[in-house]
Design goal:
This protein has about 280 residues and is of the alpha+beta class. Helices cover about 35% and strands about 15% of the residues. It contains nine helices and ten strands. The strands form two sheets. Strands 4, 5, 6, 7, 8 and 10 form a six-stranded mixed beta sheet that branches. Strands 2-1-3-9 form a four-stranded antiparallel beta sheet. Helix 6 packs antiparallel against helix 7 and helix 6 packs parallel to helix 8.
Length: about 280
């Protein structure tokens, strides 16, 4: 066991930082067999959790904890034996990390942001502020925001006095350039029994089901990826075997998910994972 990493994790947890182990490549562990290959609906590399509630540290920021009993439990022992670093969930501790990836980003921060606690990284610096917000990547060249639903590698306490999260940092997310949404690329269903018609329901039932699925995704206020996965699973559970779903139907579902911030690849992953779970 990497005893020094576990000791660091326990010290951080005692100070109120939710922590978790990282394996090589700064990637969280995937110890739960039910989550192998993102079968639970989580995103690739387990960077965002699916609906699984297993005790192993396989769900990135959602697995971070301050409970020493969990950190030292048998379920986490294998992870700590292989761990190469400790990560923490900034948002869970009421913090935001401004991740500056290069000298140009650091120079910008020194001009635009108030000074705060600073931690050197491999390529740049982490500027840490008191206050949580929604995380976002690439809010400007070389700048990511890590707070809620994100994790950051622990690289030491840093230097400087922790400052309150300024409006200038919150504004970065609001001003981040909107990604141009590519045309939905639905995963086509294989031909299945039913000849393209639903043998147990009317066409109106399918249309109503797709409309309800779109509404469920659109109205999701949190856990969007998990909601998308569960919605895809529900649609496929009802209509996946009879062959009545068409590319037009899947395009509608993918478009609703992308309007909530999901990428085409994440939509395809969730669709494939739902099909795999059902054996389609």
């Amino acid at each position: 066991m990497s005893a020094h990493l576990l000791r660091t994790a326990l010290d951080l947890a005692a100070a109120g930082l939710p922590v978790l182990p990282l394996r090589a490549g700064k990637v969280p562990f995937g110890n739960c067999p039910a989550c192998t290959g993102s079968a639970c609906g989580g995103r690739p590399a387990m960077k965002t959790p699916g609906p699984c509630s297993c005790p192993a540290p396989c769900h990135a920021w959602a697995a971070a904890t301050t409970d020493p009993a969990v950190l030292t439990s048998d379920a986490w022992a294998s992870a700590w034996r292989q761990a190469v670093a400790v990560a923490y969930h900034p948002g869970g501790a009421g913090l935001t990390v401004v991740d500056l990836d290069d000298p140009a980003a650091i120079a910008w921060a020194r001009e635009a942001l108030p000074p705060t606690r600073t931690v050197p990284t491999t390529r740049g610096e982490h500027w840490i502020y008191r206050g949580a917000m929604a995380s976002a990547n690439a809010v400007r060249p070389g700048v990511d925001l890590k707070s809620t639903m994100a994790y950051a590698r622990w690289l030491g306490p840093g230097t400087g006095t922790l400052a309150d999260l300024p409006a200038a940092v919150r504004a970065l997310r609001a001003k981040a350039p909107a990604a141009v949404r590519p045309a939905p690329a639905p995963v086509p269903l294989l031909p299945l029994a039913g000849g393209g018609r639903c043998p147990h329901r009317t066409p109106a039932y399918l249309e109503r089901g797709i409309a309800m699925a779109e509404q469920r995704i659109t109205q999701a206020a949190a856990a969007v990826h998990a909601t998308v996965y569960r919605t895809f699973l529900a649609v496929l559970s009802t209509h996946g075997w009879c062959g009545c779903l068409t590319p037009a139907h899947t395009a509608r579902l993918f478009a609703a998910a992308q309007d909530k911030g999901e990428s085409p690849r994440h939509c395809a992953d969730a669709w494939t994972n739902a099909r795999t779970r059902l054996g389609l």
